[in-house]
Amino acid sequence: MPGLMLGNNAYAGRASNGASGTKSHEPKQGSGLQYLIPASYRELLDRVGSRQGNGVTATADSARAGETDDSEKLDTHSREAEGTETFSFWAAVRKLARRRLESKEPDIEPWEHRVSRFHESLWIEELRVELEMAKWRLTVDWIPMVGDDLYKLDISELSDDASAPLDEKGFLRGVHVNIKCSGGSVYRAMIQPGSAAGSLLLSSSPSLARAQGPFQIRFHPHRFQELAMHRALDAPRNGSFLRAAHDEAAPLSRPDAVDEAADTLPASLNDDQRRAVAAVLATTSDRPLVVWGPPGTGKSTLAAFVIWHLVQQGPSNLNILAAAPSNTGADVLCRKLGKLGLDPARVLRLNAVGRSVATVPEDIRQFCFTTIGENGRPTFRVPPLSKLRTFKVIVTTCVASVHLANALRVEGSTGWFSHVIVDEAGEATEPETLVPLSLLRRDAGTCVLFGDHFQLGPLVMSRLASQLASLEISMIERLANERFTSVRDGEDRGLSRDTLLTCEDNGLHFLTESYRSHSAITALYSQIFYAGQLEHRERSQQLLALPFFADLGFTAPVILHNVIGQERRDSDSPSVCNDDEVKLVTEYVVQLLADDRMGLRASDIGVITPYTKQLQVLQTKLGSLGPTLAGVECGTVEWFQGQERTVVIMSTVRCSRLADGSVVKGGADRRPIGFVADPKRLNVAISRAVAGLIIVGDLRMLASNSSHWRQLLDMAKDLGCVTGEPLVEGPWQPESPPKAAALGLATVRTAVPVAQASAAWDALTSS
């Protein structure tokens, strides 16, 4: 059957020769050349580029992200702005992609068609990114050195023009930066963890510190990430993970085995956590087990405990690969394992070769493998396979796990991991998740995905890439949706407790007990996004801000402050800001830090805003008030995902009044609040707060254009937590009601004593 050849890259070699499917020449297997953007796409780009002087832009294909958030407006008006050539180009790309997909063998299996669509989508996404990057031009006078071979590059000007978050977590992973000095010398730099909106942390040569500006900055894509995903799609091991729910066999584990394993776990785990851990220990299938954890339910803590428990059981054939989409996520996992007493002889933190050692937290450097580089300083390397196989646990990012796959390919062998655990799986595309999963051993193995697909998912720039293969839907979201749907079996059952418990038999575990936020804050995101299924668990930290809010006349630590400011968009920037909200946010920050009863530090306060321009104005305003307020961290929603703060203040920016005094009117041609209406963004923003949540914005404007914001406002009214300018009542005109939310082995040799497991869990969860 032709489709069976997909595991040997037959699709990729065929695709690189255009739409006809003729194998006139296949690049050498393993070289990576077969995964280059196909020549047929390149020809389209070259033709339109030559006619426009390389002025092709990506605007017409923009998807979720960044400052170009009004997708309907783009579809309507960008034809005049960008010209018909750009639209013709993307129309031709769409037509070509469909023709290429239709040319594949008609008798291949559905999951193999998915592989084909994923390959095509990755190429189109890469094309979109390349076009986006080509239009960036930046000149700066100064690039300060901030550490060993580390530099801080101000990209605030560029952040306004870009259509995606420019940080290591999102769009710029693996991107090369070329820096041309006034004298003509060119330095190459790599973007490092620690980059944030408005600035990038770069690693480069020490001599860059002595170079003279102005500096011309150019960005260039690096194919390391794309190559890793293409190869993972064609890895023989991954066929089973790409099959849909109807192809899945019966339960992942025997109920009696789960019950037996649960009896050996600490009583300090709650019931959901205990059943999830027991399912990992008892599973007999290589189908991914899904642990869905809403905010504050301890996903990463549970993932670390699962890894520790498996190691303590001590089977001789145990090897665990623990991965996360970001370096931050992988570092957190490694730190938790160190806290549990796992030593560097058993745990390796495998870093990408291009990462700067200086960006690794000091407490986990002992787990890293380094050598002395050409500059005389430590640099990351991949240990030889003989060394890699000695570790019980290897912690890395999803994409960096391709270093292991590359080493195995040279040796001619396959993955040796008995367990693959992916944390924060909701932030990774499915091809990205497949990179570590491809390393699961063939004969037996267990994989577990921890995450929450109701928070921000993977960043996909190209709308066409999303349409072809649902590239923006993570594997954990797809599996959760499929398994929840199969349990419902056509019945109109929502996110009820009974349904969730039934899902556990199908490999979907839902964590319900949330330990992060005060009960009033937990109730907000539980009711709006999780059908009220979250159960609050109190911690002393959650009560810290109650006196402050009580002095303002509120019984709960929640404030929705109505302010009808003026939405301002500068002529040289697509981003927006709101000076009235900046003033109000600053006043709240000053009051919070002046209240000695809480003893808050600036770092305990997080200010979230969706817009880069507002972020810059807030940072400038707070910084002008002295070093104390400058320590308050301001960031986008993307930046704060995975974090928490004692008090969170959110500035929503969008309002019904523009700077020229005109009033914004709704209608089919414009979404008045853009991506502020995105429910996943709202969920992340309000669930970061531990003890206090303050939202400033035009509340009626928000509620009129989003059913989720309307629900939030109604709940705040019931709490008596709405203040500010009078809220003019009137008929709501919300968006169409949302559809019902879809939810989306090594042999054990030694039992872990309950007392030992209890002590480990207490060590992880202690303050």
Radius of gyration: 26 Å
How far apart the termini lie comes to 57 Å
Mean pLDDT: 82
| CATH topology value of the largest domain | Rossmann fold
Number of strands: 24
Q: Please state roughly what percent of the residues sit in beta strands, choosing from under 5%, 5-15%, 15-25%, 25-35%, 35-45% or over 45%.
A: 5-15%
Oligomeric state of the chains present here = single chain
CATH architecture of the largest domain: 3-Layer(aba) Sandwich
**CATH-defined superfamily of the largest domain:** P-loop containing nucleotide triphosphate hydrolases
Largest sheet properties: 7 strands, antiparallel
Fraction of helical residues:
25-40%
Report the CATH C-level class of the largest domain: Alpha Beta
Low-confidence stretches: 1-29, 62-83, 666-671, 731-748
Number of domains: 4
Q: Look at the helices and sheets and give the structural class.
A: alpha/beta
Characterize the overall form.
globular
Tally of contiguous helical segments: 27
Strand order of the largest sheet: 1-7-4-5-6-3-2
SSE inventory with pairings:
Blueprint: H1 10-15, H2 39-52, H3 71-82, H4 84-102, H5 110-134, E1 138-140, E2 145-147, E3 150-154, H6 156-161, E4 176-180, E5 186-191, E6 199-203, E7 215-220, H7 224-233, H8 255-262, H9 271-282, E8 289-292, H10 299-313, E9 320-324, H11 327-339, E10 347-349, E11 370-372, E12 378-380, H12 385-388, E13 393-397, H13 402-411, E14 419-422, H14 430-437, E15 446-451, H15 463-469, H16 475-488, H17 497-504, E16 508-510, E17 513-514, H18 519-529, E18 535-536, H19 546-551, E19 558-562, H20 579-594, E20 605-608, H21 612-623, H22 627-630, E21 633-635, H23 637-640, E22 645-651, H24 679-686, E23 689-697, H25 699-704, H26 707-719, E24 722-724, H27 754-765
Helix pairs in contact: 2-4, 5-7, 5-15, 7-14, 8-9, 9-10, 10-11, 10-27, 16-17, 18-26, 20-21
